[in-house]
Amino acid sequence: MKRFYDRLTFQQKKAYWAWLFLAVPVAFFCFVRFYPTLNAMVISFTDWNLLSPMKFVGFENYQKMLTDKVFWKVFGNTFLYLIIGLPVTLLLSFAVAYYLDQIRFMHGFIRGLYFIPYLTTAVAMAWVWRWGYQPVPIGILNQILTDFGLPQQPFLRAPSQALASVLAPAIWAGLGFQVIIFLAGLRGIPDTYYEAARIDGVGKWATLWEITLPLLRPTILFLVVLTSISLLRIFDQVYNMTVGGQGGPLNSTRPLVLNIYNSAFRDFDMGYATAQTMVLFIVLLVITMVQLRLMRAK
Amino acid sequence: MIQSSKTFPLPFGLSASPGKIVIWTLLFLGGIVMISPFIFMISSSLKTADQIYDLRLIPERPTLANYVDLFANSPFLRWFWNSFITSSIVTFSVLFFDSLIGYVLCKYNFRGRTFVFVAILSTLMIPTEMLVIPWYVMSANFGWIDTYWGIMFPGLMTGFGVFLMKQFFESVPDELLDAARIDGLSEFRIWWEIAMPLVMPALSALAIFTFLGNWTAFLWPLIVTNSRELYTVPVGLASFAGENLTRWEVVMTGAAVSTIPTLIVFIVLQKYIVRGVVLSGLKG
């Protein structure tokens, strides 16, 4: 062995070390990432409940999806989370970051207040919010409403309000992350741009629209993609805030990931569950591809 | 001392324009709203069952009875230990392997390097949700259900960490490594003793995020654990809260116990955490 190594050229020695270092990682990525990916694709073409032998059924699971009313409801919910959540999150976090960037007094402390929710366990916070949504005399939110003479709201109990009520803690928890990234983006804009604008007598709003936002484009794009992906994968909040973790009432809050979980681990329909994960995979892939395109465009 | 006519003097020798004061006040109030769920959570956990409907912030007769009850009558301590040990091991594994892979892909020229890098990077595109079912099947076949190994194995190396570390090793000069090579250091020690100390900021960011990510992880631990003894904190809390659905003071105590360690860690490490978010966010 020693002889073999000594006879290698410098380049060969480096390759020898490289593959020696990479042996375990390559095995890991093959076994825990690539093989399961292929396996998921295969399972999606079968009818399988884990116990009976796997039966190939072609595209049956995918056809079932097309006619499954629950699936389409869930698919719609998932996009509702995205369509409502994305603009609200980005506008709020940008507003906070934009103004926070202008103040110095207790800057770090206030930033900390916005950032803390990002670090906490979503499960724990989902239960705190669920408590807050309870009717009087339990829940604090309805208590505040009645204190102001406003009618109580059903929140999680009404199909029309439940989705927004579940989304709120998800937005609340993610806000701090977006604020930090926006702050870093704002810091990255050279002062000379602002000075030039001031000398030219450009107003505050014009400066924001003409200088700040265009220069923040990469930051905004990055946050749009990251936030979209996390909203499309929402699960913890729904599982913990709805009765029995079912995404009710009347499936009004159930997102794709919870439906996948139900198909796989409550109905044991592995084929149908993995077929739905393929849909999730393709949606996320498209979003990432669009981002890469837009990044390269500039 | 010349002051512009529009500024107000403030304590501590500060001064500010009225606009700034309004902005500051609004941001501060917004921040209080942001942490209000924590305040209500802790306040409720200090109340007895008959006080819980009294929504006063400071409990009339604050009591730690809920906490005593929680630790005495539920396996929360065990869940803490499970979460702590699995998150720690995964974090050490990620730090070791991701930086080793990133280093090799950055500093060694060999056939297949680009292929390996692209392959590992491509795993970032695969959502966890797609892999949990095959992982579950795998765990069932190998007897990994209800084991620490079952909770940990999917996260032992990550594509994100490899990418992050590779970016940071770019800043380590090749000359330094070659000098160490001439001095007769082994390839392993060049990485461990020369290159690693130079990427400490990236390592600490990666450590914080890996640990937090595993500490708060819910979906996979929920799937791979069946017995109460093996639950992690989030899974345990979900089942515990489900069992005590109407006893809100108990649920709030469980939530508080799950959250307070993270709050303490944040208060101690705020500077590093924020820097870490920026580092990994901008590089990634």
User: Which series of helices and strands of chain A comes N to C?
Assistant: HHEEHHHHHHHHHHHH
Oligomer: heterodimer
Number of strands of chain A: 2
Q: Strand share of the residues of chain B? A: under 5%
Regarding CATH, which class of the largest domain in chain B? Mainly Alpha
Mean pLDDT of chain B: 87
Backbone shape of chain B: globular
User: What fold name goes in the CATH topology slot of the largest domain in chain A?
Assistant: MetI-like fold
Number of discrete domains of chain A: 2
Overall body shape of chain A: flat
The greatest inter-chain interface is formed by: A-B, 85 and 92 residues
Write the layout of secondary structure elements.
The complex is a heterodimer of chains A (about 300) and B (about 280).
Chain A: H1 2-6, H2 10-43, E1 46-47, E2 55-56, H3 60-67, H4 69-100, H5 107-119, H6 122-132, H7 140-147, H8 159-187, H9 191-199, H10 204-215, H11 217-232, H12 236-241, H13 256-265, H14 270-297
Antiparallel strand pairs in A: 1-2
Chain B: E1 8-9, E2 15-16, H1 18-45, H2 65-73, H3 76-107, H4 113-122, H5 128-142, H6 148-152, H7 159-169, H8 174-182, H9 187-195, H10 200-216, H11 219-224, H12 233-243, H13 248-283
Antiparallel strand pairs in B: 1-2
Helix pairs in contact in B: 1-13, 3-7, 3-10, 4-7, 8-9, 10-13, 12-13
What does this structure look like?
The complex is a heterodimer of chains A (298) and B (284). Chain A is mainly α. Chain A has 2 domains: 2-43; 64-297, MetI-like (MetI-like fold, Orthogonal Bundle). Helices cover 74% and strands 1% of the residues of chain A. Chain A is built from 14 helices and 2 strands, in the order ααββαααααααααααα. Chain A has helices at 2-6, 10-43, 60-67, 69-100, 107-119, 122-132, 140-147, 159-187, 191-199, 204-215, 217-232, 236-241, 256-265, 270-297; strands at 46-47, 55-56. Chain A has a two-stranded antiparallel ribbon. The model of chain A has no long low-confidence stretch (mean pLDDT 90). By secondary structure, chain B is mainly alpha-helical. Chain B folds into 2 domains: 8-45, no CATH class; 69-283, MetI-like fold (Orthogonal Bundle), CATH 1.10.3720.10. Helix content of chain B is 70%, strand content 1%. Chain B is built from 13 helices and 2 strands. Chain B has a two-stranded antiparallel sheet. At the A-B interface, α2, α4, α5, α6 and α8 of A face α1, α3, α4, α5 and α10 of B.
